[in-house]
Write a structure and sequence with these properties.
With about 550 residues, the chain is an all-alpha fold. The radius of gyration is 28 Å and the shape is globular.
Length: about 550
Amino acid sequence: MKTQNVSRTVLAAGVGAVLAATALLYVPELVGQGPPPPPGPAERATIAAHAGAQASLPDLAALITDREKWLRAHPEDDASWAALGAAYTERGTRLGDARDYPRAERALKRSLAERPAARGNVDAQLGLGALAGARGDWRSAKEWGERVRKAEPGRWPAYPVLIDAYNGLGDYEAARKAADKLEELHAGAVVRARVSQAFRNRGWREDADAAALDAAALAETDAEKAASLGRLGDLAWERGEAAEALARYGSALRLVPDHGPSLAGRARALAGLGRTDEALRDWQAALTRLTLPEYLLEAGELYEAVGLEGEARALYERLRKGDWVRGEVALGLLDADHGAPAAAVTRLRAEWARGHRSVAVADALGWALYRAGEPQEALGYAKRATDEGLRSALFTYHLGEIERALEQPGPARRHLAEALRINPEFSPLHARRAEQALTALGELPDELPKELRPEAPAAGSKETAAGAAGADGVDAKAPGAGASGAGASEAGASEAGASEAGAAASGSGSAASGSAVSGSATSGAAASTSGSAAAGTPRE
């Protein structure tokens, strides 16, 4: 959920970048009439767009009205049709209102009809790429973005479109390369926001925060600064710093009091600080301002956690019945955790088959499979979600619970504890469940599991004699001399070593799970007499 929240705020900057490349305003010349008047709302929106910044929503609405009026008199103006389409897309994204997307599509296609792509209408193609991304159609977004990049490699607004598309498809290496290219071509808040996102996806938290601070400092408008501050709040929350997140969201809301992502973020942080009544109030405000599927799920889980079952069910029902353009992950998690895990698996398998293989989809599919009683298959998806680099408490919790179901106590204990270290209040429902699961696993044992202990040789055997000779120093060069006791002691004293040994003992090396057991095999080898044919080996 967090991954999608940050992606949305960054997407707004990308759509603004497209608008910057396309927006044109026709203003009569004021020759001989003294100094020009201060810019009006539509002009302010255009100035912000050319700077790659977000305009205020009233100014954006004024620009839309202005272009609509102009086009009624000048329907052949392809550039204005492209600008109108980009503005519709941005407004729909920032308000969470998909009704603007068909309007955007009609305007952009009209622009191409007036001036086809073959004649150089790059602006409309960029607009269609941004629109596809807003709808979650990552393959189409990639196709449009790559067409523009091929035609004009130096056109910087193509790269935000491509970054979103590659992230949605799970191609994080391509997304990083596109971000590097964007940095070469352009500067400013929009670029620093993209760099911050790339760092976050790799787990480089300090770098992500520094780049997001740069974006806030470089922001040109209150709307863009509020978006940057909200992004900083998200980063603080993901690190488990609820008080810092609350302060950052508060700063954003002082600039734009109805900033939806910051209202939702503040609700999340207040809940983490135990200020439940205030959190519920902010969730109501956030859902009034920006109704997104992940917000409905998260607010519903807070209501459920505090015993308000009726209110929770009402929010879950709104989520199920909504017409969402990017709701598959939230709907999948809802079904997985609240009554229909088999339906969640079907929904998320379809999303995966579409090529939408982001870490968010991988995590949700793995969790749905686990909840549907298929933990062995679930493990591969859960590992894919956590191996990319993003440090998500929710993803790590899901992995730990799947490992616990597979009777892998070492890895399960490690990942459940890690989830709570990342953010001890990561979910109103699942944080408490992580604590309970960790308690149920108990303390780390002081000795190797039974399956990994070396077998005692039969009395009178050659192995017994060889072991006695080694102990007396008769054959100090024997391969197994002195290895068993030291290896077992070190493995028992080291949490990491015992955890890895536990992973091998519980079958984490099976082909279905796809996990490696090299560390476990090493522990087993150290604890056994390597020169003995009768010595016990780790069970695969």
